[in-house]
Amino acid sequence: MTASSFSVPAFVDAERSRDWVREALRRIEADFQRSADTHLIPLALPGFDGIDVYLKDESSHPTGSLKHRLARSLFLYALCNGWLREGSTVVESSSGSTAVSEAYFARLLGLPFVAVMPATVSAEKIRAIEFQGGRCHLVQDPTRIYAESQRLAAELGGHYMDQFTYAERATDWRGNNNIAESIFVQMARERHPVPRWIVCSAGTGGTLATMGRFVRYGRHQTGVCGADAERSVFFDYYLSGDASLRIEQGSRIEGIGRPRVEASFLPRAIDAMVKLPDLWSIAAMQALSARLGRPVGASTGTNLLAALACARQMRQRGERGSIVTLLCDGGERYRHSYHDDHWLQAQGLVCDAEAQALAALMQEGRWPEELLTSWRLAGALLEEGAPAGGMRT
To answer: Less CB within 10 Å around the terminal CB: N or C of the chain?
Structure first.
């Protein structure tokens, strides 16, 4: 048999592979074409006169969260890099929402999907992943999800999507209707069209990186503020630059906060950070849910608190302007956790008094002293003369 006789089957196989990738890309782009952009909702805050706050409602995506954008970008990135092939098993480490969205895109392409998640993830998210055709692989130790994802991908001959590494580079941060560009387009006819602040919590850090890069690329006079959960290293990494930071506990605010520094978190791309106690994040979730008339997730509560920190500084300086933050997902996924009184009681997170205090803050501008002494600020939000990571009240 001559060497040339091997070339025809190899060529045919390569062409079939390229045809599959082209069809996969077409399906994802067609899905995007069928989708409208998410809404930008004005949030009335009478206690902050002259400061307009908006919620970018990412819960209206087909998979119900901000992570729909990330999953789409990750699949496009993997396809164009040649990492996915017909029949590949897609594996992802996730606390839930990214896995729901990736399961959706895997099913769109006819690929098996396995989500490696902490065992504490909400039952609603597990059902949502399974509804999309995915399979859940639960891990007791949340710090083990990375290694277990790599092991499973190797065992199954599949591809580990690895959102925590690729989130910041998979998205076209210069435009292409990314979330930052969408915000600026939607704000164009508002009273203060260029936001003074854009606020976003950190899960991978990819959305924060996109915000920071786009703001700089567009030469906007906008600060980008990161919000961090209680059990997370991002804030301390922002202060110290020590990428070796680790903690043994997973975040109690699903979707945000990490026990290690992730490659997609770029501290120099943002201007400020706020670290919020979990109790107050859940209280903010409750107060905001009541104000909107529909439930939201706990990470949205974290975002709201950080946005209020930005509003506080603006009011102290006599500034008027706008702040945009994210409504990451709806509260329906957390009916048996954050929105369940018995669950909150068991976790020591009952926060009725804190939620009432935050409702009063939004309505009347009266700050709860307990919040001011328990959060931590850094970067452009830090008051002159205040110690690093703290704030004078």
So the answer is: N
Indicate the Cα dihedral angle 97, 103, 104, 110, nearest 10°: 170
Joined together, the tokens standing for residue 114 give 């396995």
Q: Three-state SS across 323-354?
A: EEEEECEEHHHHCCCCCCHHHHHHHCCCCHHH
Q: By the 8 A CB rule, do 124 and 333 touch?
A: yes
- Domains within the chain, CATH numbers bracketed: 40-64+177-379 (3.40.50.1100), 66-165 (3.40.50.1100)
- Going by C-alpha positions, the residue among 337, 205, 197 that lies closest to residue 272 is 197
pTM assigned to the model: 0.90
Query: Residue with structure tokens 């199954």?
Result: 156
The SS3 of residue 104 is helix
Q: How far apart are CA 54 and CA 40, in angstroms?
A: 6
Sheet of 159-160, strand order? 135-139, 113-118, 90-93, 159-160
* pLDDT per position as a tens digit, 112-145: 999 999 998 888 889 999 999 999 999 998 889 9
How long is the chain? 393
C-alpha 286/C-alpha 307 separation (Å) is 16
Which residues, listed in sequence order, are joined to residue 117 by a DSSP beta bridge? 138
Q: Distance between CA atoms of 187 and 178, rounded to whole angstroms?
A: 14
Q: What residues in the chain have per-residue pLDDT under 50?
A: 1-8, 385, 390-393
- Report pLDDT digits (tens) over 49-92: 999 999 999 999 999 999 999 999 999 999 999 999 999 999 99
Q: Using CA atoms, how far apart are residues 101 and 62, in angstroms rounded to an integer?
A: 8
